[in-house]
Structure prediction request, 340 residues.
Amino acid sequence: MTRGILLVNLGTPKSSQVADVRRYLGEFLMDRHVLDTPWPVRKLIVSGFILPFRPKQSAKAYAKIWDAAGAGTGSPLLHFSRLCLDQLRKRLNLPTELAMRYGTPSIADALAALLDRGVNEILLVPLYPQHADSTVTTSIEAVRAALPDTASLKVIPAFYANPAYLDAQAVIIRNHLPERWDHLLLSYHGLPERHITSADPTGSHCLATAQCCSTPSSAHLTCYRHQVYRTSQSLAERLGIGDDQYSVSFQSRLGRLPWLTPYTDQTLAELPRRGVKRLVVACPAFVADNLETLEEMGLAGRETFMDAGGEAFTLVPCLNDEPTWIEALAGLIREVGEID
Prediction:
C-alpha cells in the first residue's frame, strides 16, 4: 500500500467578488449537513431567501479581510492552510495534498493528484478540532464519494482533547496575552441545537439536562458542545486561569432556529457591564484565520465590545503556521497513521 495524506478545510470563495461569493455560498448552504432540511425546502430557502441578498453583504465582509495576511495572499484561510501544507510536507515523507470541502482546491483534484502518484491508501485529516456533522461528517462523505474503489480511507478523528494540539493552542494564546487583561473569551463557531441532538447516538442525552456535557456518555464522541467545553477547560488548566477568568460563547448563527448559547455578540455587549474592560478573544474551533475570526470577531466583534464600554480588545490569531501546531499536527498524523 502507498500512503498519502489529504488535508481538508471548510472552504472559501475564489475572490471577494459577489459572483464568487454567491457560488461559494450556494455550494455551502445546499449541503444537507449545513441546512438539514429536505432538498426541496433547502433549495427554496437558499435560492429564494438567501442567495438573492446575502452574497452582496458577505462580499463586503470578505473584502475587508482579503489579503489580510499580506498583499496578494488572497483568502486568509486558504493562505494559511497552504502554509500548513508546505510545513507538513517538510516533516512527513509522504505525498500530501490540501482540499477545501467547498470551493477550490477541490477534493476531486486533490485526490487525483495523490492517485497520480500511486497513492492507494488515503489518510484524511479534517482540519476541525471538534466534531460536527457540518464540518467533519460532510468532509468524510465528500472524500468517500470521490474515492475510487481501488483506494482505502482512514480518518484522523476530532483532536479536541489531543495534548499536543491543546499545548499549541495554549502557547499561541499565552504569547498574545497583553500585560494587563481582565477576561479571556473563547468563541466557537455556533451550531443549531438540533444539529447537536441529531448527532446524539443515544437519542436522549445531548441537551436533555443542564449537566449533559459533564455527565459521561457515549454521545460525547460526536457532541460538538461537549468537545468545546472539554477544549476550553483544558486550555484554562494549561494557562493557569480560574473559571472566573474565562468564558465560552458561540458565534455565526443564521436564521431563527435555537442555536447554542451564549451568543458571542450578546456576550461582547454584556462583558463591559460586568466590569470587563480589557478583553482577550481566541477562537479554538478554527486552525486557520478566516472571515469569522478576522472580520466577525476582529472587526465587528471589536466594535461591539468597544461601543459597549470596553477599553482594550485583543484578538489571538488562529494556529495558522505556528511551529508548535505544525509539530502537533505532524505528530498526530504519525500516531494515527502509524507512520515512522
User: Anything to note?
Assistant: Residues 163-315 form a domain with the Rossmann fold fold (CATH 3.40.50.1400). The mean pLDDT is 96. The first strand starts at residue 3 and ends at 11.
